[in-house]
């Protein structure tokens, strides 16, 4: 693969971001893990889970598993319908012994909603395991279907506040609005972004960023293949 003048910065936090940066480097690209947000644990009070439980991210699984009243997680999820927002989240659950997980092919709230459309939600109790704040699209859709929805928020996102490289040829892979806000606070919007959803693309464009392209999902496997293809295009 020919050398590229562009360096990729993976802003996703924790192990998921490190893994993606390593995979990109293995493809011959120049990538560095530079997280723009930290995740910190929350400690919600003990509460009953719904008959259908949705995990919104791998971090939701990791932090839920740290709650003493939910350990071991696999026992608390027995005899429940379990869904995840994507394959990486499903893998985290399987590593903890939760095998009855349904996930959409493309990791996004929209993809998960398409997967859930065959289910009748009238009167059904649903728990969404997630971070503090974040999108309400899934919760709104479930409520419109007649579900009784409760959010179990197990972590929060906080900006890291590091000094960022300012080279115009750098490309930043972002998967959250918090990461985009962190870039905006530390630059003159000169950065070029790769985003993981149309929602983030609109969010970035509204704040004056250039978007190199939008990946089809937030799953590391899709990002890896699509970024590799994009970066080998001689036109960039």
What is the strand arrangement across the widest sheet?
3-8-7-4-5-6
Describe the main β-sheet briefly: 6 strands, mixed
What percentage of the residues does DSSP assign to strands (E)? 15-25%
Distance between the termini: 15 Å
The number of helical runs is: 9
The count of strands amounts to 11
Helix proportion range: 25-40%
Oligomer: single chain
Low-confidence stretches: none
What is the molecular shape?
A: elongated
Domain tally = 2
Which key phrases capture this entry?
9 helices, six-stranded mixed β-sheet, five-stranded parallel β-sheet, 2 domains, Rossmann fold, 236 residues
Architecture overview:
- The protein is α/β, with parallel strands linked by helices and 236 residues long.
- It has two domains: 100 residues, 3-Layer(aba) Sandwich (Rossmann fold), CATH 3.40.50; 120 residues, Rossmann fold, CATH 3.40.50.
- Helices cover 33% and strands 22% of the residues.
- The chain is built from nine helices and eleven strands.
- The chain has a six-stranded mixed sheet with strand order 3-8-7-4-5-6.
- β7, α6 and β8 form a beta-alpha-beta unit.
- The longest helix has 13 residues.
- It is elongated.
- The model has no long low-confidence stretch (mean pLDDT 90).
């Amino acid at each position: 693969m020919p050398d590229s003048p562009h360096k990729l910065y993976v802003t996703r936090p924790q192990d998921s971001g490190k893994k993606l940066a390593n995979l990109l480097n293995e493809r011959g690209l120049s990538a560095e893990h530079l997280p723009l947000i930290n995740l910190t644990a929350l400690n919600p009070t003990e509460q009953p889970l719904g008959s259908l439980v949705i995990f919104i991210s791998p971090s939701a699984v990791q932090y839920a598993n740290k709650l003493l009243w939910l350990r071991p997680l696999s026992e608390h999820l027995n005899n429940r319908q379990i869904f995840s927002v994507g394959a990486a989240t499903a893998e985290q659950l399987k590593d903890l012994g939760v095998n009855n997980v349904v996930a959409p092919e493309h990791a996004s709230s929209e993809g998960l909603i398409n997967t859930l459309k065959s289910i009748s939600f009238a009167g059904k109790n649903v728990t969404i395991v997630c971070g503090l704040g974040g999108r309400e699209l899934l919760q709104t859709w479930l409520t419109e279907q007649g579900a009784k929805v409760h959010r179990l928020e197990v972590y929060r996102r906080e900006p890291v506040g590091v000094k960022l490289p300012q080279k115009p040829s750098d490309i930043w892979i972002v998967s959250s609005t918090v990461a985009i806000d962190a870039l905006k606070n530390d630059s003159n919007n000169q950065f070029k972004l790769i985003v993981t959803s149309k929602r983030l693309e609109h969010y970035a464009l509204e704040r004056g960023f250039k978007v190199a392209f939008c990946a089809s999902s937030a799953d590391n496997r899709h990002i890896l293949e699509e970024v590799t293809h994009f970066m080998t295009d001689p036109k960039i």
